[in-house]
Write a structure and sequence with these properties.
Helix content is 22%, strand content 19%. The protein is of the alpha/beta class. The longest helix is centred in the N-terminal third of the chain and has 21 residues. The protein is globular and about 45 Å long. The structure holds ligand LXAUTJHC. Belongs to the glucosamine/galactosamine-6-phosphate isomerase family. 6-phosphogluconolactonase subfamily.
Length: 223
């Protein structure tokens, strides 16, 4: 069943658990890679940290192997990073300077997580970085979630992507997902501000995370 509320291109998919969600997410990555390659473009994908890492690390490599796809030409980047200042030679920000001619990089796919407070990447509720309009990567030195020093893609980049998929699993995300997906708040949470201008917005949830939702969702019971 397709969602009938919210932005036209938003789809919310619910899986019984992260074990079913992971292969579907890996499949989505491969589909987007094929679509980019079919259009003659290099596939650019931005990945987030947190609980998403375990899901991707478990399910993406076998999917790539069984599809006999070569990821050698993919541009893999991080949606945020928690360690070094942007001037550092090892800074992940460098990865985002490889989009010649584009003021705002347009990713084929960004895979984002969402914290129980509604943050995504390292964009936190109420933080001035939510107002950033110029920078594509910004530093934050006062992250409320440790560690305090991070860098993150900004909203202009997130909202320029061709597709954004949020992944959220577990009961600790249930209350904030209701606010993000069903709320109409005056000051939306960071994750609710991600509305790709001309791209698609997907949500991959497990049942624990989706348990408070009343909007129509696509239920996936088996692989
Ligand atoms: O701090 C971060 O948190 C979010 C959400 O992480 P989770 O463990 O609650 O899933 C993550 O997407 C982001 O990359 C990370 O820096």
């Amino acid at each position: 069943m397709a969602a009938t509320t919210g932005p036209a291109s938003r789809r919310v998919s619910v899986f019984p658990s992260p074990q079913e969600l992971g292969p579907a997410l890996a499949q989505l990555v491969l589909e987007r890679a094929a679509a980019a390659g079919g259009g003659g473009r290099r596939f650019s994908v931005g990945l987030s940290g947190g609980s998403l890492v375990e899901i991707l690390a478990r399910d993406l490599p076998p999917a790539v192997a069984s599809a006999a796809v070569s990821p050698a030409g993919w541009l893999l980047a991080f949606c945020d990073e928690r360690l070094v200042p942007p001037e550092h030679p090892d800074s992940t920000a460098g990865a985002y300077k490889v989009f010649p001619g584009e003021d705002i990089p347009v990713f084929d796919l960004l895979v984002l997580g969402v914290g129980p407070d509604g943050h995504t990447g390292s964009l936190f509720p109420g933080h001035p970085l939510l107002q950033e309009k110029e920078k594509i990567v910004a530093a934050i030195t006062d992250s409320p979630k440790p560690p305090p020093e991070r860098i993150t893609l900004t909203l202009p980049v997130l909202n320029a992507a061709r597709m954004v998929v949020f992944v959220a699993t577990g009961e600790s995300k249930a209350a904030v997902l209701k606010r993000i997906l069903e709320g109409d708040e005056e000051n939306p949470l960071p994750a609710a501000r991600v509305q790709p201008r001309s791209g698609q917005l997907r949500w991959f949830l497990d049942e624990s995370a989706a348990k408070e939702l009343t909007i129509p969702v696509e239920k996936h019971s088996v692989l």
